[in-house]
Each structure stands twice: as C-alpha cells, then as structure tokens.
C-alpha cells in the first residue's frame, strides 16, 4: 500500500530490504528476474508428472526391448533424473548439468531406451529459452559425445557383459533428435524475446504517452491560471490600496477579481473536460486567436494597454496551431503583467505563406530573464512551439523592453478569407 501511495516501484532495486522485510533479491526470484522473463514459480506439478512417468515408461521400454530387468542402481538413477526438474527455472544450468550426468550414468549401466531422455530434453529447452544458450549447446555436445563413446568404444567395459557396439545409424537418429530439440528451443527463445521486446516497447510507449499527457495538462493549467491569477493579484493590490480612500474604485477592482476568477474556473473546467474517455467529443471548442479581444480586455483590467496588429492574408488556422498561438500570446501578456513595469504592450500577428509569426513587445525596464518569469511560462511556450515544429525566441530588445517572438509552421486548411495589409486594434486605455 505504501508503494502504491507513493507511486514508487513495488520491488526495490539492488539488495535493499523490501517493505515486507524480504531482501529485494529474494523478491525478484519470487516475482521475476526484473527483465520481463516472467514468474519464477517452482514447476512442482509438471515435475511430479515426469518423475512418475519416467521410471514406469523406462521399465516398460526396457522389458519390451528384451533387456535385463532394471537393477536397483538403475531404479535409483531413474528416480534421480527428474529430481533436478524443479530447479530448471531458478537454476537452469544446474538442472541441465545434473540431468545430463545422471542420464549418462543410467546409459552406462546398460539401459539405453525409454523416456529417460525426457527430463534432459525439458532442461535443454528451458536453458535455451532462459538465455543460457552456450551452456545448453556445450552440454548437449558433451552428452552426445559421451553417448557415442559408450555405444561404440567403451561398451566392452560397461554392463551388460558381451554387449555389442550399436549401429552408427542410431547416432544419426540421435543427432537428428538433438538438432530438432535445439531448433525448437531456439525458436521458442526467439519468440519469447520478441514478445518481451514488444511488451517492453508497449510499456515504454504507455509511459511516454502518460508523461506527455501530464505535461500537456500541466501546461494547459499553467496557461489557463497564470493570466487570470495575475489579473486577480494586481486588482487585489489595487483594492487593498484604495479600500479606504476610494471605495468605489476598490469595488471595481473586486468586480474585476470576480470576473477573472469566474473566467479561470471556466477554463479549468474546460481543461478537466478534456480528460475524457476515448471517443467522447470536447464539450467546448479550444480557444484560438479569435479570442484575442478577451485577452486584451483582461489585460486592460490589470492596467496593461495592449495593441494588436495583424499583417498578411489571414486564413483559418489548424486547431492545434490556433490554440498554441493563443496560449503563447496569453503567456507573453501574463509575463508582462507580472514581471514588467510597462503599461503598454504590442501584439503583432503576421500570416505568411506557410508560417505564422507572433511578436509580443513591451517597453518595461525589466532586463535579462526577469521579464520572462520563473521559466515555466517560457518553457511551456517553447514546448508548444516545438510540438508544431516551430521556435520561440525571448529576450531583451536592443532599444529596451522585452520581446517574445514565435514562428510556427502552418498547413493551410482553406483558401485565404481576408486580403490586404495591416489592421490595427486598440486594446483599451488601461
């Protein structure tokens, strides 16, 4: 519960103790190896099934081939062969080596047939799939070499007495089985690694989308609230200063505060409405440059006289570009109100052939990065511009004051709807 509340990983890295008191390394063995290879549960059921089948099947096979009855040593080896199977997931190399050695010992006592090879096949498969390919190949090669030595050269020194060399055709069949087992194991390993890779990529993509969504929400909330709260802050200061000397002006400031807070609540509600389930449509259109007069009016209530000029042939902007342009202008004017001593600002919007240029200038005495605010606003503007392939330039003008310049690429959605040169809009007296 604590990890979920804090949002931290459920299994601490390294060997540090976990919240439940168990070392993290032991928890990894219990829950997985941390690299997407799945749980490390001990395969008791399958191991018991194989352990019961191998002795019985080998006894029937040995009897059917006319061999002597299994000796007590052979029975002991048959029971020992599957004993390594429960370790095949936790210790695949140990399980493979132990199974191979015991199987060779069983062959050395003169019993060559039956399902005694099944545990070896299972451990080879598990070792390859778990990534221990080199150990598996070396073990299989050594096992086949020893099998050939037993069958063709050492049979005279091994029980049963008088046993003849096995036909070489048996070795070809054994080699074919070995190749088939290794090929199936490698194919399963490739499939598993591909599945792990795809799952990792999907998880990374989901985290990336979540991060982008959090960033988008944070940027929207900052853009929505910063402007209104700046107006509220300025008007609250005016109201406090004039509360006794000019109650009517203080009342006007309070009215402005109420309107700005209502506007902020409405825009926050609009952002929250955007956190909808897939398939739902937005309840309200996203703001665009058509709402610049509202920005100008809000700035005027904060004592900032804003002049808006447009140039070029205007045309409908794509929604994403329109929203980004509006938010950039909004944030730039907010920074003027909060960080500049200027009482005048100029906004110029230039429609190019496939570009949209935005200029926001003020004549305040602020210098350096002070006019740009704490950095969150400029960072948000740059992120919005970069998402569209545009750029933001912000800095002190040579003749004084501060300038924010945005250059956004535009893919036209329709023919121009307005022709001619510059138009001017006076935002108010402030």
From TrEMBL:
UniProt cross-references to Pfam families, sorted A to Z: HATPase_c (PF02518), HisKA_3 (PF07730)
Gene3D superfamilies: 1.20.5.1930, Histidine kinase-like ATPase, C-terminal domain
Catalysed reactions, as listed in the record: ATP + protein L-histidine = ADP + protein N-phospho-L-histidine
TM region(s), chain numbering: 44-64, 70-87, 94-110, 116-131, 136-155, 167-188
Top EC class for this record: transferase
Gene Ontology cellular-component annotations: membrane
Region (Disordered): 1-42
EC number: 2.7.13.3
Alphabetical keyword list: ATP-binding, Kinase, Membrane, Nucleotide-binding, Phosphoprotein, Transferase, Transmembrane, Transmembrane helix, Two-component regulatory system
Name of the featured protein: histidine kinase
């Amino acid at each position: 519960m604590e990890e979920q509340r804090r949002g931290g990983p459920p299994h601490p890295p390294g060997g540090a103790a976990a919240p439940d008191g168990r070392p993290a390394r032991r928890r990894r063995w219990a829950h997985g190896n941390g690299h997407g290879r799945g749980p490390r549960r001990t395969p008791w059921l399958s191991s018991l099934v194989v352990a019961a089948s191998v002795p019985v099947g080998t006894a029937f096979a040995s009897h059917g081939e006319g061999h002597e009855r299994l000796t007590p040593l052979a029975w002991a080896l048959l029971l020992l062969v599957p004993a390594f199977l429960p370790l095949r997931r936790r210790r695949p190399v140990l399980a493979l080596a132990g199974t191979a050695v015991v199987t060779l010992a069983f062959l050395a006592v003169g019993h060559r047939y039956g399902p005694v090879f099944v545990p070896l096949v299972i451990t080879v498969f598990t070792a390859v799939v778990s990534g221990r390919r080199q150990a598996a190949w070396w073990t299989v090669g050594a096992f086949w070499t020893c099998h050939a030595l037993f069958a063709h050269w050492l049979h005279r020194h091994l029980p049963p007495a008088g046993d003849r060399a096995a036909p070489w055709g048996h070795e070809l069949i054994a080699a074919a089985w070995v190749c088939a087992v290794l090929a199936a194991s490698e194919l399963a390993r490739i499939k598993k690694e591909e599945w792990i890779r795809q799952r990792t990529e999907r998880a990374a993509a989901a985290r990336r989308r979540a991060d982008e969504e959090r960033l988008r929400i944070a940027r929207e909330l900052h853009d929505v609230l910063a402007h209104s709260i700046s107006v509220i802050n300025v008007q609250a200061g005016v109201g406090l200063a004039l509360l006794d000397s000019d109650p009517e002006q203080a009342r006007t400031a309070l009215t402005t505060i109420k309107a700005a807070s209502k506007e902020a609540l409405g825009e926050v509600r609009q952002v929250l409405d955007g956190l909808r389930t897939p398939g739902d449509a937005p309840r309200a259109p996203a703001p665009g440059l058509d709402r610049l007069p509202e920005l100008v009016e809000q700035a005027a209530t904060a004592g900032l006289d804003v002049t808006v000029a447009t140039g070029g042939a205007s045309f409908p902007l794509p929604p994403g570009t329109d929203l980004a342009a509006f938010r950039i202008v909004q944030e730039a004017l907010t920074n003027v109100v909060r960080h500049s001593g200027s009482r005048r600002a100029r906004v110029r919007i230039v429609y190019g052939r496939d570009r949209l240029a935005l200029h926001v200038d003020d004549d305040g005495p602020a210098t350096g990065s002070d006019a740009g605010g704490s950095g969150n606003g400029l960072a948000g503007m740059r992120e919005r511009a970069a998402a569209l392939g545009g750029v933001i330039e912000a800095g002190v003008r040579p003749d004084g004051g501060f300038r924010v310049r945005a250059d956004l690429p535009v893919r036209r959605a329709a023919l121009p709807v307005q022709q001619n040169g510059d138009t001017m809009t006076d935002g108010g007296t402030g």
